[in-house]
Amino acid sequence: MGTSVQVTPLSGVYNENPLSYLVSIDGFNFLVDCGWNDHFDPSLLQPLARVASTIDAVLLSHPDTLHLGALPYAMKQLGLSAPVFSTEPVYRLGLLTMYDQYYSRKSVCFVYRQVMLISLTAALHSQQVSDFDLFTLDDIDSAFQNVTRLTYSQNYHLFGKGEGIVIAPHVAGHLLGGTVWKITKDGEDVIYAVDFNHRKERHLNGTVLESFVRPAVIITDAYNALNNQPSRRQRDQEFLDVILKTLRGDGNVLLPVDTAGRVLELMLILEQYWTQHHLNYPIFFLAYVAPSTIDYVKSFLEWMSDSIAKSFEHTRDNAFLLKHITLMIDKSDLEKVPDGPKIVLASMASLEAGFSHDIFVEWATDAKNLVLFSERGQFATLARMLQADPPPKAVKVTMSKRVPLVGEELAAYEEEQERIKKEEALKASFSKEEEMKASRGSDKILSDPMVIDTTTPAAPSDGVAGPHVGGHRDILIDGFVPPSTGVAPMFPFYENTSEWDDFGEVINPEDYVIKDEDMDQAAMQIGEDLNGKLDEASASLLLDTTPSKVVSNELTVQVKCMLVYMDFEGRSDGRSIKSILSHVAPLKLVLVHGSAEATEHLKQHCLKHVCPHVYAPQIGQTIDVTSDLCAYKVQLTEKLMSNVLFKKLGDYEVAWADAEVGKTESGSLSLLPISTPPPPHNTVFVGDIKMADFKQFLASKGIQVEFSGGALRCGEYVTLRKVGDATQKGWWRHNSANCDGRAPV
Fold first, then answer.
1. What's the whole-model pTM score?
2. DSSP 666-713
3. pLDDT tens digits for range 192-219
């Protein structure tokens, strides 16, 4: 049998819920994606909770919430402790995405943590807040700190339990750093390809999925199976037309966007158009991590499209040196902008939280304004509700703010804090006492009592004397008698256990690394803003530790603004998905993530046109997609290889090998030379021949040859033309005065 492969969906099948799948390769368990949605509902993670402790490795495909949003919570609460693998952009931008999610929900006052950058910034004023406690910034850092980052096409060989398994990320084309994962064992490939895009865009190349041929298994999604897209030029022009119409009508444009994903493509479209047409309408990117996002993206040019890389090589111009887009991390900065038409790209795309939520509430009541959705909203979110046809005339939204505790609530809070402090102090004292007892016990065994000169009798002090034992006496210290379990007092002594080698004392490099906590402390230096200064109000907010609570109230918002949805998701449409799958022709196909209608539609199509083994499992259902091929490992003996004659074919060398199967002394299979003369071999055509190359070959043999009507005309009587489909490579039809037939070349 071939390599054993089982697939178990944990989330995201027959619906548009977050993506999370368990893929087992010969007993080695991969968690492929670990997504959540903007509702952060823990009940969605129950299937993951049941298997989290059995996971051996985690593979992340894209840097958005739907693909990695549950990682901090799973590692903190569910017992997930496996190593994580991703590309560098997925790691960096995924980290910022989770920061933005946390900041959009947490508190009215916090310090903005800017990863790996020196210019740490100021206090931020959050508008939409909540008592969010599913994970903290430290949980996010802890989840991402041990991620192993790989480059595209880099083969990473697992070890230990995963010995023999090779993983490699390849271009997906959907988001920056987005990955099609290739998992290989014993020559069989398992491809995980969700949310891929074959189209080349401004900042990304298309996917390389089509370069894989006949893999054992492909796991892909049906999310776009029912959708067809217009041309990119038409879509971009419609996008710009509706924006300019709104701006010229004295209206504002809100684009709810993700933190560090498709927003990059939108910014390039606007930046390039504004530069070409010399427009002056202001554009703002408003997110808690906007500066960090763009700073990292500037350093990821090698992960982007060929056009961006070539432009940088020739002109040294970075495409993300934005001249017309202003980055903001505080909504109060937007409020200081003079009145007038403007464009705001604000996170989150779902409108469930963040700056986009607050701006929508303010702008929705003005008919001159436009809310332009560039992606389908997540299921059951405000964005999805507004994308309905027809859209609602009014929606209910929840607004929250943080207020200080007063009266009985404040007294109860202080009483609870005092109780917690006492409990912690009591636990600390118990712990210290236990440590002292353990220390005394060990010292009593190793130490001798202090010898006292007893030649001169000593009078008891204050009626308290220590017992005499031969020539030894307990020590009296200010009238205190040490307990019987005590030991003689002595000065502390610490033995230097440093290791030395030929070059001196061996040091630990980690002792000299600046820790994140130290950087955070540096960020809290009062008297600094983005350039080194903090105003007094921000400083007071940073130092404000007043007990507070979140108060929420429900508002009804009249939706009078224009609502438009345009597909800038960066995914292949249904027609392209079907074409790509037919070209790749996997032996077995697993469909995930998509509505029930889309999943069934793609399943029926693939059964007819792609392969006979198509699966669409339910959540928790394990399907066995083990290859039907029989694979064996054999050793090629030196005796056999010495008689093999290789022929060079492009970058490879090929040869016939006639052998019989035997066994080595260790019991493994081996190929041995046959004892009888080998049979004659039929001619075999390897690869595909190009007509131009064949014309050159014939000319080198002295044959007069020329192209004529898509065929090769050889002399006066013979014509060669290529016939058949992709399954008949190497077959040519030759026509002459005497024959008309087909023959292999």
1. 0.74
2. TS-EEEEE-SSPPPPPPP---S---HHHHHHHHHHTT--EEEETTEEE
3. 999 999 999 999 999 999 999 899 999 9
